[in-house]
Amino acid sequence: MSRLDTSFVRSQFPAYAFDEWRDAAFFENAGGSLPCRQVVDRLGEYYRRLKVQPYHAYPAAQEAGAWMDAAYVRIAEYLGVTSDEVQFGPSTSQNAYVLAQAFRRRLRPGDEIVVTDQDHEANSGAWRRLAENGIVVREWRVQRDSGSLDPADLDALLGPRTRLVAFPQVSNLLGEVNPVTAICAKIRAAGAVSVVDGVSYAPHGLPDVPALGADIYLFSAYKTFGPHQGVMVIRRPLLDELGNEAHYFHAPLPHRRYVPAGPDHAQVAAMTGIAEYFDVLDAHHGGGDVSGRAARVRALLGDDAALLQPILEFVDAHPALRLLGPRSAHTRAGLVAFVPAATPPLALVETLGRDGVLTGSGNFYSTRLCEALGIDPALGVVRVSLAHYNTATDVDRLLTSLARALGS
After folding, report:
1. Backbone angles phi, psi at 364, to 5 degrees
2. What angle do CA 129, 132, 138 make, to 5 degrees?
3. What are 182-228's pLDDT values in tens digits?
4. Do residues 342 and 320 touch, judged by C-beta distance below 8 A?
């Protein structure tokens, strides 16, 4: 495999054809990545040529339906699952909410579920609300000094009535990668279902879901270079056991069961563009057989340690900044969050923005984690998040701008 060719990568993202993007260092990818050309082209063509009710008995409708069907197949290939196990919904938050309603009927008063205070609220709040139905909600709490989840702490929370454990693969503030495979094995041994929030991991390489052992895996397509859709994988046989949350006549259709309002035809059709982009990324970097393509693309997307480590070292060494999460790039995904000692996070982000360094501030819907770490959720943190189109030049601009803003 060749080293990542960022010039080629950027040529696949239409935003970089515009001056305001060529002249900017974009570090808010965890909030939403740039869409790749293949997705933009598909979305545009669908609206221009195929914006009809799909699957009807005329050519445009038949082609529109075929585009949608292909999206499930192609995304499934990169996730290592069958196409029927892939669901597309409006967002990860809504997918998790609908999923919780499906489990609401499955669970009985006194049954137990485990949630964390490390997760984005999408994979926490919807489950906590089940307490209204008599479900016992147990909290797997982070270590107060580091924010990490200790898998050993989960042992005391698992019992004969544990039915489900929801946790993140990567915290969207800490960046730390949790040992998902080991945790899922522990959950399965307890006879429970694992629900893994992969939103902050997936942009750095769509996961091999069977290898992780997750029963349910969630992530956002608009953070993986695609349209504004949430992706939810529900493995069999669980998929066949859960109820239908859509119109009753959609019960036989796996893709319709968890989208009560029906799919967004155009955006689902455009999802194929993510896989097409991964195909050309692999081919450009010397890819070979199709069977190994997903692993090769995963390696390309996740190879960001060389860019991430200088940011970590700068933040960790600066007396005016509090680094969240591990100090090593090899134990985390491509994001760094920190708390300025004397400057409100938003003010620092605005200063960086004037230098063309685009970052984000806030609690990023991880209010419980902020509270656990003694951070005011109303102020939150500064978050710097990378994607594979970021360059060493971007990192230099970030560190120069940070040093100037902090007076060092």
Report:
1. 55, 40
2. 60
3. 999 999 999 999 999 999 999 999 999 999 999 999 999 999 999 99
4. yes
Instruction: Please confirm whether the linkage preceding 340 is cis (ω < 30° from 0).
Output: no
Q: Is the pTM of this model over 0.90?
A: yes
Instruction: Identify the CA nearest to 206 among candidates 220, 216, 188, 195.
Output: 220
Reply yes or no on whether the pLDDT at 1 is more than 50.
no
Q: How far apart are alpha carbons 271 and 257 in whole angstroms?
A: 19
Q: Is 250 exposed, middle or buried (0-12, 13-18, 19+ CB in 10 A)?
A: middle
Residue with tokens 């100090």: 327
Angle between helices 272-284 and 293-302 (to 10 degrees): 80
Q: What are phi and psi of 78, to 5 degrees?
A: -80, -15
For residue range 238-280, list pLDDT tens digits in order: 999 998 999 999 999 999 999 999 899 999 999 999 999 999 9
